[in-house]
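Bench notes, afternoon.
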Amino acid sequence: MKPDRPGLDESLTDAEYDRLEAIIGNFEGEDVMNAEEMDGFFAALICGPATILPSVYLDEIWGGQETPFATTDGLNEYLNLAMRHWNFVARTLASPDMVYLPWLVPEEGEEVPRGNRWARGFLRGIGLSREAWDDIFEEENDFAILLPVFALVHENDSDPETRTWNTAPDRELRMEVLAGLAVSAQRAYEFFRPHRTREARREQTGARRVGQKIGRNALCPCGSGKKYKHCCGNATLQ
């Protein structure tokens, strides 16, 4: 008999984080996420106002294809690691005594992470319930919460006019924007706290409402005036 896997409330060890990163790194396909993108994706889903079921968001991580696992044991190992990381992110964002730090992965040969994939993952999380996020886009001061996210999403945009910077930011500016990701996640979590409370009450009464997934032809929420598929939905990551 194989030993039981650790409980879902048990934090991952460094070795288990390496294992989770390796598993995700083996996913194949154009829309699969890496570990950094998955972390941003999880953060958005946890911060956001709508409840998205694991059967929906786990499928998104491997690009909406059929399960990439050849065995049940392989799938169960991945689910155990991924859900324990999800629970850690959720605990961190909810606790006044903990600080959420994005899981940022430096490119090969680089010391400072770029953060583009984390930001892209966060935006993909918003996209799963775009309509439910409307409140944060309606007021300029509220939308400013997400500016570090959109700055990194658009850093390498294929359209020069949409790019955040004409030249790559220096190390100091990069570190400042990366620190802003953690602040964005925490502020978004607090912004939507009342929404999640109302959502929980709807679930208890059987009147659950989930936001509508963003359409590819809808206007992009970042305010560029472009369709989502030609803007944040097609952000170039380098």
